[in-house]
Specification:
460 residues, 2 domains, 14 helices, 34% helix, binds ligand BES, Aminopeptidase, Alpha-Beta Plaits, 4-stranded antiparallel sheet, 9-stranded mixed sheet, binds manganese (II) ion, alpha+beta
Length: 460
């Protein structure tokens, strides 16, 4: 039956592309209140599509953006089919800066075999591969090979503030799932499919430094009143030592290095530093001594400034002591760092570094630990076979530097392990201008998803 489904998928390439373009046209930017109606529309679109594949789909309200929850009605799968959960997110990052896009971010456009749009890869395009695979199974086989539950979130890009509540409320329905499938990572390289077995955690802060209750003339008051921009620079400048290591006391205490065999395996992956240097346009790569680039990204923790704001930003000179200065800061965590302990150590360190004469406020926006997933399980074996079927190659086993906090939550709350099988490529420009998904990856993703559910349905 899978062969007929795969044939149908191939024959209907233009249909899948048209459907995905329609979903991408809805600007489901979760961060911005002016897009709340678009978020609703994108959720409705997905529910409608899932109903077309025979599933029972509803919107689950949350304090902010809804989830789409779909289940397989009796009769749409064999009675003894294993219960599988698929998670994806239909929200996207803001598209700004708009002037750097070659084509408009919410008018999905094909150029050189690539589909350009915000969400093309992260994550609508990859999630849609699964929706299309289900539609194909329903169309050709009149049933799905597994009892599938689909959970699509609308708040992933803003840190999933309400997802734990949705999981808890639906725990009775979801807990019987054998495994969680997520396609929100990437292949290792073109033609090198990958199963991701680890993600970094994320602690995110906004740090605000406040001085006087108004901007001040920098001649009249300079030297007599603390300058928040100077104070912030002073703090930020001390967060790394001369070797680039994070100075928060205890930051590295719980870091567990991967086994030597795993590090040796990573060294054998087809990774070319010089082509990355060229692709990124940097003079050279940068990072902690003693670790390879992949290790720096996959198993070493970081602290990075993500945003920095203070003072006069317009043309020419304006002599002013800004009243405030702020920075957005992320820490990427690795096993076995404790997210809350790191967050608390960070706050203590910042307060310790702060100079006199200013007020510090710290707002914690995320705190989630790194996640490791099994590299050996019946579900992983099914995913390996699906890659061979859908992409023509066995996958390599990698980790990723990005974060998907839900992986930890499903494990902690329901005891379910994840299979992270991404279809995109490392150069998809996630969160950046000109985000894209190669059409080859898109169609291979639909085939792979169709094959995955076939194999999961046969899982012992
Ligand atoms: N899909 C990404 C995470 C990702 C990217 C995993 C590349 C593996 C490879 C996800 O949508 C994302 O952007 N996550 C955020 C964290 C979230 C809490 C906002 C991230 O990693 O910054
Ligand atoms: Mn994503
Ligand atoms: Mn993202």
């Amino acid at each position: 039956m899978l062969d007929s489904v795969l044939l149908w998928i191939e024959k209907n390439r233009s249909l899948w592309l048209q459907d995905l373009k329609a979903w991408l046209a809805i600007p489901s930017v979760s961060a911005k209140p002016e897009h709340d109606a678009d978020i609703q529309a994108a959720a409705q679109w997905a529910a409608y599509y899932l109903r077309g594949a025979g599933m029972d789909a509803t919107l689950v309200k949350t304090a902010r953006h809804p989830c789409v929850l779909a289940t397989t009605p009796d009769g749409l799968c064999p009675p003894d089919a294993p219960h599988i959960l698929f998670y994806g997110h239909y929200d996207v990052q803001p598209a700004e800066p708009l002037q750097l896009w070659t084509s408009p971010p919410f008018t999905a456009t094909v150029r050189n075999g690539k589909l350009f749009a915000r969400g093309a890869s992260d994550d609508k395009g990859q999630a849609f591969c699964h929706l299309a695979a289900l539609a194909a199974w329903k169309q050709i086989a009149y049933e799905l090979p597994v009892r599938l539950s689909v959970l699509l979130e609308g708040e992933e890009e803003i840190g999933s503030p309400n997802l734990r509540a949705v999981i808890a409320e639906n725990a009775d329905r979801l807990a019987s799932a054998r495994t969680l499938i997520i396609s929100d990572s990437s292949q290792f390289a073109p033609g090198v499919p990958a199963i991701t077995t680890g993600l970094r955690g994320l602690v995110y802060y906004e740090l605000t430094v406040t001085g006087a209750n108004t901007d001040l003339h920098s001649g009249i008051y300079g030297g007599a009143v603390a300058n928040p921009a100077n104070a912030l620079s002073h703090i930020l400048g001390q967060l790394h030592d001369a070797r680039g290591r994070v100075t928060i006391p205890g930051f590295y205490d719980d870091v567990r290095l991967p086994e030597p065999e795993l590090r040796a395996m990573w060294k054998s992956l087809p990774f070319d530093e010089s082509s990355l240097v060229k692709e990124l346009g940097v003079p050279e790569l940068f990072g902690e001594a003693g670790f390879t680039t992949l290790e720096r990204r996959w198993c070493r923790p970081t602290l990075d400034i993500n945003g920095l704001t203070s003072g006069y930003q317009g043309a020419g000179a304006k002599t002013v002591l800004p009243a405030t200065a702020s920075a957005k800061l992320s820490m990427r965590l690795v096993p076995d760092q404790d997210a809350i302990a790191i967050a608390e150590a960070f706050e203590k360190h910042i307060r310790h570094l702060a100079p006199a004469g200013v007020t510090i406020t710290l707002e914690r926006l995320s705190a989630s630990p790194a996640a490791l997933t099994p590299a050996n399980s019946p579900a992983i074996a099914a995913a390996v076979e699906a890659c061979e079927e859908g992409m023509g190659k066995k996958p390599v086993f990698v980790r990723e530097g990005g974060s998907i906090p839900v992986v930890t939550w499903f494990k902690e709350m329901l005891g379910i392990d994840s299979v992270l099988l991404g279809f995109g490529l490392p150069d998809d420009n996630l969160h950046a201008p000109n985000e894209k998904l190669d059409l080859d990856c898109f169609y291979a993703g639909i085939r792979t998803a169709a094959a995955l559910y076939d194999r999961l349905g046969k899982m012992k």
